[in-house]
Amino acid sequence: MVTVDVELSKCTGCAHCRDVCPVNVFEMQPRERFPGIVDDPAVGAKFQFRAEKSAVINGPDCIMCEACLFECEGECITIVDDEGKTHPSTYK
Ligand code: SF4
Ligand code: SF4
Questions:
Q1: Alpha-carbon span 62 to 45, nearest angstrom
Q2: Around Cβ 76, how many Cβ atoms within 10 Å?
Q3: What is the pLDDT of residues 38-59, one digit of tens each?
Q4: 1 and 37 Cβ atoms separated by less than 8 Å
Q5: Considering only CA atoms, which residue is closest to atom 5 of ligand 1?
Q6: Domain ranges for the chain
Q7: What is the rounded average pLDDT of the residues 76-89?
Q8: What's the rounded Cα separation, in Å, for the pair 14 and 70?
Q9: 12 Cβ closer than 6 Å to some ligand 2 atom
Q10: How many CB atoms lie under 10 A from the CB of residue 88?
Q11: 3-88: CATH topology
Q12: Is 69 in the pocket of ligand 2 (CB under 6 A)?
């Protein structure tokens, strides 16, 4: 089974993942839903943190298109495929 993970301290709330995912793996939720998460200052130096963060609501449906990995500005999405190989975000 494919697993999808978001490292929330780096998630800026840009919503690119939700917008590009063809199978609705992600949902944007108010950051208050994630108590105790401290925004990563290194990411904050490059990007603005918004009022929401990304929640993985449907990870097993991921079809490994990798679109979110290219579009995640916080470089905080990691996908582990059926064979156990790890695929990190690679925002350009
Ligand atoms: S790799 Fe594709 S299908 Fe999987 S979560 Fe990312 S955008 Fe969605
Ligand atoms: S693309 Fe990355 S930084 Fe942007 S909302 Fe999704 S997980 Fe967060």
A1: 31
A2: 22
A3: 999 999 999 999 999 999 999 9
A4: no
A5: 62
A6: 3-88
A7: 97
A8: 13
A9: yes
A10: 11
A11: Alpha-Beta Plaits (3.30.70)
A12: no
Q: Which secondary structure element, helix H or strand E, spans residue 36, and what is its range?
A: none
> Model's pTM, two decimal places?
0.96
Confidence label for 70 from pLDDT (cuts 50, 70 and 90)? very high
Residue 87 has a pLDDT of 98
Rg (CA), the chain: 12
Closest ligand 1 atom to residue 61 Cα is 3
pLDDT at 89 over 80: yes
Alpha helices in the chain (DSSP H): 16-20, 41-44, 67-71
Mean per-residue pLDDT for 11-38?
97
Q: Is 8 in the pocket of ligand 2 (CB under 6 A)?
A: no
pLDDT exceeds 80 at position 18: yes
- Please give the span between the terminal C-alpha atoms of the chain, in angstroms, as a whole number: 28
